[in-house]
Design goal:
alpha/beta; Elongation Factor Tu (Ef-tu), domain 3; Rossmann fold; 2 domains; four-stranded antiparallel β-sheet; 9 helices; 16 strands; 27% strand; disordered C terminus
C-alpha cells in the first residue's frame, strides 16, 4: 500500500459540491494514483482522533498524481469532513488502495449501473471496460435532475447512457431497474452487469438481471473497521459461505449475495451513529461560538 511522505501529504487539491450533502475531494497522492485500480477503496482519517471510514475510489489520475473521493454527508465523520476539508487542508491518514480490483474480463457488452452516490465508484469500472474494448451501456439513477452529476464523464466512456430519475425530471421516469429493462430490451447480448449503490438498489438490479442470465457484480459496503480482515466486522453472506468485504471484495456475485442480511447488519449501529452525529452538531455550535477551529490544518507552502 502506498505511504508517501513530504509536506504535501494527503493534501486536498480540489473540491466540488454537487448538492448540500454530496461533495467531491481530489487528494494529492501520486503513489496511490499509480497503484489504484477500478473497484478498490481507501480508509480515511480526517484528523488524529477521527474515525476510520472506508470510501470507494471514484477516480484516479496517474498524470496529476491524485485520487478522487465522492462523499455523502450522512453521519458524524462525513459531515465533519464536509465542514473541514477545503482546498489546501490535509487529511490525517489515507490508506490504500485496498480490496481486490474489479475483474474486467473479455465481455464484449456490459451494463454499468450506479444509483445515487454509487454513480461515482461505478465510473472507474465503466472506463476500465471501455479501455478493454467493451461496448459500455451506462445506467445512472438519481432522485431528481438537480442531483445529477458526472453525466458528462460517463458520456465520454459509455457508448450509451441511460439516465433515470425518481421524479421523472430527467431521462426515464423510474428507478435504475427501468433503465436495465430498457437496455436489456434493446440488447439481447449483454454479458455482464456491474451495479453499485444502496443495498436495496443492488438487490433490485440483481433480480432484474437474474432472469436474463446476465452475470452481475455488486460492490458491498458493510460495516468496516480495520480493512485487513482481522476485525470481522465486514463479513457478508455470499451463497453458502462467509466472506470479508475488505479482503475478499468489495466486489461479489450479486446473484449470490444475501442482501437481507447485509441490510440488517448495516442497521446495527444506527443509534450510535445518530448519537455521534448529535454530539458533533452540538460541538459545531460550540466551536462557532468560540471562533476558528484549530483542528483544521492548512497545507504548508
Amino acid at each position: 500500500m502506498a505511504t508517501p511522505t513530504g509536506p504535501q501529504l494527503f493534501e486536498v487539491v480540489a473540491r466540488r459540491d454537487f448538492s448540500d450533502v454530496t461533495y467531491l475531494l481530489e487528494i494529492h497522492h501520486p503513489q496511490m494514483a499509480r497503484a489504484a485500480r477500478a473497484g478498490q477503496f481507501v480508509i480515511v482519517m480526517e484528523h488524529e482522533h477521527g474515525e476510520r471510514i472506508p470510501l470507494t475510489l471514484a477516480d484516479f489520475d496517474r498524470e496529476r498524481g491524485t485520487v478522487t473521493l465522492v462523499i455523502q454527508a450522512v453521519g458524524k465523520t462525513t459531515r465533519e469532513m464536509q465542514a473541514r476539508c477545503q482546498v489546501g487542508t490535509r487529511l490525517h491518514a489515507l490508506v490504500g488502495p485496498m480490496g481486490m480490483p474489479s475483474h474486467v474480463g473479455e465481455a464484449r457488452k456490459v451494463l454499468c449501473v450506479g444509483g445515487g452516490l454509487g454513480v461515482a465508484p461505478v465510473y472507474p469500472q465503466a472506463r476500465a471496460y471501455k479501455e478493454h474494448g467493451a461496448y459500455v451501456i451506462g445506467v445512472l439513477g438519481f432522485r431528481s435532475r438537480s442531483l445529477v452529476f458526472w453525466d458528462d464523464k460517463f458520456r465520454a466512456v459509455c457508448d450509451e447512457l441511460i439516465l433515470c430519475t425518481d421524479d421523472g425530471s430527467a431521462g426515464l421516469h423510474g428507478l435504475v431497474t427501468a433503465g436495465i429493462a430498457d437496455a436489456v430490451g434493446r440488447h439481447a447480448d449483454i454479458a455482464e452487469c456491474v451495479a453499485i449503490g444502496p443495498p436495496v438498489m443492488m438487490k433490485g438490479c440483481a433480480e432484474a438481471t437474474r432472469a436474463h442470465g446476465i452475470r452481475t457484480i455488486v460492490s458491498l459496503n458493510p460495516i468496516m473497521v480495520d480493512g485487513t480482515g482481522m476485525c470481522g466486522g465486514c463479513r457478508v453472506k455470499v451463497g453458502d459461505r462467509i466472506k470479508f468485504a475488505c479482503v475478499d471484495g468489495p466486489d461479489f456475485d450479486g446473484h449470490q449475495v444475501d442482501f437481507d442480511d447485509l441490510m440488517f447488519r448495516l442497521k446495527r449501529y444506527a443509534q450510535s451513529e445518530r448519537e455521534a452525529t448529535a454530539r458533533f452538531q452540538e460541538s459545531c455550535r460550540m466551536r462557532a461560538a468560540a471562533g476558528p477551529d484549530p483542528a483544521v490544518v492548512p497545507a504548508q507552502p
